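2 proteins. here.
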Amino acid sequence: RLAREYIRHGVTFVGIAVDYKPAVTKFMASVPINYPVLIGGLESTKLVEQYGNRGGVLPYTVIVGRDGKIVSLGAGALTEDYVRGAVNKLLGTAPANSP
């Protein structure tokens, strides 16, 4: 829902799957995802560590500003309100259809 809502503001959501392609494909068939998902396999845990996830917690979220700087790191599931707040802060305004 948020990926569709924020695309017109130049925001892109990207998933990175730390698993093998068959497992990711099966998951994506059961859960509708409307943003790109990169399949990194278990080797992508090095990337996850570089972004601060030393414990290997999944899901793990990194929010990056347009300037390439990390503005938020989150271990575990995030709420829609949290993501909306972080993105709105980056945009400097709330989208018109936000509550």
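next one coming up
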Amino acid sequence: MRKFLTALLVLLVPASGYAHVGNPDVYFEGNAGPYHLFVTIRLPQVIPGVAQIEVRSASNEAQSIEVVPLRLTGPGSNLPSVPDVAQRSKVDPQFFVSSLWLMEFGALQVRIQASGSQGKGELAVPVPTFARQSLPMTKSLRGLLVFLMLFLTLGLVLIAGAVVRESSIAPGEKPQPSQARRSKIVMVVTAAIVAVILYFGGKWWGTEAATYQHNVDRYKPPMAVTTLDDGNRLTIRAKGQDELWAKAVKLEDAISDHGHLMHLFLISAPEMDRMWHLHPDRTEGGVFTDKLPAMPAGQYQVFADVVDKNGFPWTLVGKVQLPKIDGSEPTGDDSSWTSVSTTKPDFNTKIAQLPDGGRMLWLRDSGALKANTPVSFKFRVEEKDSNPSHDLEPYMGMAAHAEVVRSDLSVFAHIHPAGSVSMAALDLAQAGLISPSSGRSEMPMQMAHSSGPMPAEFSFPYGFPQPGDYRIFVQIRRAGHVQTAAFDARVQ
């Protein structure tokens, strides 16, 4: 009988965390009333820091864009300050740019108000803010500050001594010996006071720097620790960067993200020729468990998406070595994909065959893909006769889901037609907007939580965070079954 198989999952990407590993920027597409907007939020390296907000309107009817940051939930989430007016491009009148100070770690939102010939409209984009690093002080700046500190300290000591020595004598007279002695005593005392101030100032600075670095580390992707029992039930536990992480995040209070508390992805490593998208159930203490479907033995990369009660998305990251699993096929929202090709990735292919004989087309142009460039990835599902499909159903409330994975597994993004934002966080952000009659944001059909038929074409706003080779898994539902297509992309 097989004993407990325990696999400790290791953290792969220490640079940037939250629910999209290695993806620091936010991409969103939606409607601000009558205006359809494509929003890119480029987050700063450090917090407090300046984020760049880029907004592209689908038409030139939007004449003005205003942006303001505020908390996603809790105190201050409905008390926006005076918004900043985005600068309209003189070259492209449909493009607006603004800069916003982001002052705190955690789940924030950026509210965007568009005004124009159709009146006003508003939308809110959830933004998980965190510092990706502590910026070190350069040697030249450190040397300059040390010089200024010594210069000012010496000047302060000399000034204090001069005041005692010469303030009570007439012009042209020499200081008395007693005045000279008092001057030296005052300079020594002043030097001692300044030294104490500098000492405790250094202590305070070190404490602040350590606290800041602690916050940087805390927002790195949490590790996941798994156990597999004799019944092929996989248990997933989150392990943060310190003992306080679990108390602060409390996955027992995690909220549902388009119908599930966790989205678990198991990807064969390093080939990425097999992928499972599963939805474990939560048990006591914020632990998640799921009975695995049929799977071949091998090493798998684990990405597990959860959203805490404040709307901050997290991805648990790691590896697990699994034996052969004699289970059933995935059902419901669960799915699996296995490559039918044994050749190397084809970066020129824009067509992927579907299990039922249909196909999915990536409607991309022939130009090169560029890193850090916002793109709308468009896809179309066709029947065997090349006609557009008419049987697409909502998959967890939307037209499609996609997972973007870099070949070295350092980048992972679970995206939707709304973009890279968490759907649970987006719901929280939308809930705080004004009423529909006053211009509340409306989500387009392809991203809305819908139960009706879906169009054959859909898109995902996204931008590759760095050059390299990627695999994009695109998932849809047809005739009650989840189907997955995979495309390879080389990014410059």
